[in-house]
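Q: I'm building a small set of examples for a reading group on sequence design. Run inverse folding on the following structure and report the sequence directly after it, with nothing in between.
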C-alpha cells in the first residue's frame, strides 16, 4: 500500500459513520425469494469489506470490474434454484451449491486461488490432508488438458474442506472435496457452473465458467484415480 493510499484509508476510517441494517431486512428479503432458503458457509463480505479490498490493492487495476462481478454473484445466488425445486433435501443441496459459487467468486476477488501452489500431488495432497480430516484424491492431469495448479482450504458450513485447483486453457476450475453431495448434480449461476461427482466415497463438486461437459470430464478423471485406475483416457 502506498503512502497516499494509507492516508486515504485513515481519513475514511476517521470520518466514516456506521449504520445497522433496518430491523427485519433479512426476513423481508427471504420472504421475496420464492421459498428458497440461503445456506451460508461463512459471513458474506459486506460492501465495506469489498471496499477495503479495493483500497488495499488486492484487486489491483481491475478493482471496479471485480467488485461488480462479485456483487453480481451475490445477487444471482439468491435466485439459484429453478422453479419447482423444493423440499428440505433439495433446498440443502441448492444452498451448498450457492456456497461453492460464492467461495469460487471470493477466491477470484481476493486473488487467493491457492494456499499451496504446486503441480506435485505429493506436495498438495499432504498439505491439504494435514489441515482437514479428509484425504483428497489429488493427481495432475496436464496430459489430458487439466494441469494441477495447487490447492487451498475453504469452508462448507462451518468446517474446512480441501479444494483442488486445476487449469483448463485460460480458465480455473475449483474442485471441492465435500462432506455431503450437491443436489441437483448440475447448477448454474450467472454463467458459473457446478457439476457434482464422486471419488471413492467422497462427494466432489467442480466449479468454473467452463462448459459443464468439461467439468464432468475432469471429475471422471479424478474418480478414475480414486478407483485405482492408473490409466486415464485423454480428453
Amino acid at each position: 500500500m502506498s503512502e497516499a493510499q494509507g492516508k486515504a484509508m485513515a481519513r475514511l476510517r476517521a470520518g466514516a459513520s456506521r449504520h445497522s441494517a433496518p430491523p427485519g431486512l433479512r426476513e423481508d428479503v427471504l420472504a421475496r425469494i420464492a421459498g428458497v432458503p440461503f445456506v451460508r458457509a461463512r459471513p458474506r463480505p459486506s460492501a465495506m469489506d469489498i471496499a477495503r479490498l479495493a483500497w488495499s490493492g488486492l484487486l489491483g487495476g481491475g478493482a471496479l470490474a471485480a467488485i461488480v462481478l462479485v456483487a453480481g454473484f451475490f445477487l444471482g445466488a439468491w435466485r439459484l434454484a429453478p422453479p419447482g425445486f423444493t423440499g428440505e433435501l433439495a433446498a440443502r443441496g441448492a444452498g451448498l451449491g450457492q456456497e461453492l459459487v460464492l467461495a469460487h467468486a471470493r477466491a477470484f476477488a481476493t486473488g487467493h486461488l491457492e494456499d499451496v501452489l504446486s503441480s506435485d500431488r505429493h506436495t498438495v495432497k499432504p498439505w491439504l490432508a494435514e489441515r482437514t480430516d479428509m484425504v483428497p484424491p489429488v493427481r495432475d492431469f496436464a496430459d489430458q488438458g487439466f494441469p494441477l495448479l495447487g490447492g487451498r482450504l475453504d469452508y462448507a458450513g462451518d468446517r474446512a474442506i480441501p479444494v483442488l485447483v486445476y487449469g483448463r486453457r485460460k480458465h480455473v476450475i475449483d474442485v471441492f472435496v465435500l462432506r455431503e453431495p450437491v443436489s441437483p448434480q448440475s447448477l448454474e449461476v450467472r454463467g458459473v457452473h457446478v457439476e457434482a461427482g464422486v471419488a471413492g466415497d467422497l462427494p466432489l463438486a467442480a466449479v468454473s465458467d467452463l462448459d459443464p461437459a468439461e467439468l464432468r470430464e475432469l471429475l471422471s478423471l479424478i474418480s478414475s484415480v480414486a478407483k485405482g485406475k492408473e490409466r486415464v483416457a485423454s480428453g
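The radius of gyration is 19 Å.
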